[in-house]
Specification:
The chain has 415 residues and is an alpha/beta fold. It has two domains: 292 residues, Alpha-Beta Barrel (TIM Barrel); 73 residues, no CATH class. Helices cover 51% and strands 10% of the residues. It has 15 helices and ten strands. The strands form two sheets. Strands 1-2-3-4-5-6-9-10 form an eight-stranded parallel β-barrel, surrounded by six helices. The chain has a two-stranded antiparallel ribbon with strand order 7-8. Helix 2 packs across helix 14. The longest helix is centred in the middle third of the chain and has 21 residues. The protein is globular.
Length: 415
């Protein structure tokens, strides 16, 4: 895999865009081992470059608690991607990307209100582990700070961004590690980079500061185009004019615009992206929801065709641990964010199962019951694993098609 670095890939992408090609890249959250297999299989079929975007809650060093995706640290994540690529015959471009790296980006660090020095030290160590494991792109996001009420000032974000990139470039050169790309900014919908003026001011100050120190400019800068994921839908108000303006602004400073929270957008909006020449978008929770929905569909099939005493308890197991995780609070709206488990009605619980089922896949009770479910479904003539893979592939393929990514790897490699 990866005949060229992500920086070379992006340079070639810009070149073919300048010659009239139109497309947007897609960052995909590695929500599970099954999803990793599905996206690599789709990549082998459709010939597009893959960016797997892992948050610190999903994948991180064991010393900081690992991650909920298969309890992976960075090296085990890389090994899994290599294993799945070999399994499905993928030999194209697949880049491992850190999504929202930085201080206080793990839930427990933020809730524990770690001191600034400790949070920055841990962020640096986590990033170094990323580089040593072969990550290709690091999102530098120091926009969280539990010691600050409201939004962290852009000057503080700027200073910490430069500090982190300078440190990482020093370590990378000292350890003779390969060149990597950087991503900066955040998708926060209040304060921060929510206006063209603030976006441009930050981009200019950052590129000036990095250039002065001889540091590489980021490949991507994140901008807010109106996307906002809550429940199992995009509740934001997408702003095409803003997206075009931010794209032009980012490109003016030598960076690509990256949208976050692209989940659940309509095909009509997705189809605009290549025409706008918007550079990239991240999607993650939607694919986790799709995988969980596939399990729920198989559970319903099991209920109809398997005797009660032989059925799995997969639904009960997923429900138990999804509710207990509390992670659903992030995606809820209104008073439900602070609800106790006892205050949740049946409709709320069903929603939590769909939203947060993917957080439970590696819990032993859930794994055991899913194995029973798969065996039962296989016994009635349907390949359960292949069904789940197909459901995930179809979901990702919607973006790949709308973003004009079919054959994109070949177009880039021939540039």
């Amino acid at each position: 895999m990866n005949a060229i670095t992500i920086t070379e890939m992006f340079a070639r992408a810009k070149k073919i865009k300048a010659n009239g090609d139109k497309f947007s890249l897609l960052g995909i959250g590695p929500m599970s081992k099954t999803l990793i297999e599905a996206v690599l299989a789709l990549g082998a079929e459709k010939d597009f470059p893959i960016m797997l975007i892992a948050s610190r809650n999903q994948i991180d060093s064991d010393i900081y608690g690992g991650g909920y995706v298969c309890n992976f640290d960075q090296k085990r994540f890389k090994a899994c991607v290599d294993e799945m690529a070999a399994k499905v015959g993928f030999d194209g471009l697949c880049y491992l990307c850190r999504d929202h790296g930085g201080p206080w980006q793990r839930d427990e660090e933020r809730s524990g209100k770690l001191p600034v020095e400790e949070a920055m030290r841990i962020a640096k160590e986590s990033y170094v582990a990323d580089m040593e494991a072969g990550f290709d792109l690091l999102h530098i996001d120091p926009t969280k700070d539990p010691h600050v009420e409201g939004v962290v000032s852009l000057d503080v974000v700027l200073d910490r961004t430069v500090e982190l990139i300078e440190y990482l470039e020093g370590v990378r050169k000292e350890k003779n590690l390969p060149e990597i790309g950087y991503e900066v900014g955040t998708e926060e919908t209040s304060g921060g980079l929510t206006s063209i003026e603030a976006f441009e001011d930050f981009a200019k100050k950052l590129t000036d500061a990095l250039s002065e120190k001889g540091l590489p400019l980021p490949l991507f800068i994140v901008g807010q185009t109106g996307t906002l994921t809550r429940l199992t839908q995009n509740v934001g108000q997408y702003n095409t004019a803003e997206a075009i303006a931010l794209t032009k602004s980012a490109n003016k400073f030598g960076m690509g615009l990256k949208e976050h929270n692209g989940d659940y957008l309509s095909n009509a909006i997705l189809l605009e992206h290549p025409a706008m020449q918007l550079d990239a978008m991240n999607v993650a929770p939607e694919f986790g929801v799709v995988e969980t929905m596939a399990y729920l569909e198989l559970i319903e099939l099991e209920r109809k065709f398997i005797a009660e005493e032989k059925r799995s308890d997969a639904l009960a197991a997923i429900e138990k641990y999804a509710v207990a995780s509390g992670r659903w609070r992030k995606w809820m709206v209104g008073e439900l964010r602070n609800a106790t488990a006892e205050q949740l009605d049946r409709e709320n619980i069903d929603l939590i199962v769909r939203m947060c089922g993917h957080y439970t896949y590696e819990i032993e009770d859930v794994k055991k019951e899913l194995a029973v479910l798969f065996a039962n479904i296989d016994s009635i003539g349907l390949n359960a694993h292949e069904y789940v893979i197909k459901r995930i592939k179809d979901s990702i393929d919607r973006y790949i098609f709308c973003f004009n990514n079919y054959g994109l790897t070949s177009r880039i490699m021939n540039a």
